[in-house]
Amino acid sequence: MIRFHYRYPSFRIPAAGKVKAWLEKTAKTEKKKIQSIDYIFVTDGVLLGINEQALAHDYYTDVITFPYSYDPIVGEIYISIDRIKDHAVQFGVSLDQELKRVMIHGLLHLCGFDDTSKRKKKVMTDKENTYLARAR
Q1: Is 111 helix (H, G, I), strand (E, B) or coil?
Q2: What is the three-class DSSP state of 33?
Q3: What is the pTM of this model?
Q4: DSSP-derived secondary structure for 18-70
C-alpha cells in the first residue's frame, strides 16, 4: 500500500491513483513487493530538521528515505516540495517531472539501490530515466 501525506500548504498530487499505480508497477519490475510506503510531502524547514536530527547533515535536500524493510518493502520517503519547485526551475523541467523523479529515486532506494559512488549513481539515474519515460 502506498499512501500520500500532505504536510505542505496547498499541495496535492494530481491523478494520485495513476501515480501510485506507476510506483507499484516500478517496484514489481524491480521484483519487489510493497507492503507499505508512506510519501510525506513537507517544506524545506521540516526536511532540514529531519536531515539534521536523523543524519547529522546541516543542509537542504529534496528527499530522505527511511527503509524499514526491503523484502517486502516498508519505508517512509520525505520530500521537500520547496526543493522540487527550485530544482524544476534550475533544471528546466516541469514540476511534475521533477516530483516524479524524486519519488522514483526514493522508491529505488527502498528497492535496495544506492548512490554512494559514481557507478551506483549512474545506475540509479539510468533507472530513474527509464521509469520516468514510462510515467507519461
Answers
A1: coil
A2: coil
A3: 0.94
A4: HHHHHHHHHHHHTT--EEEEEEEEE-HHHHHHHHHHHH---S--SEEEEEEEE
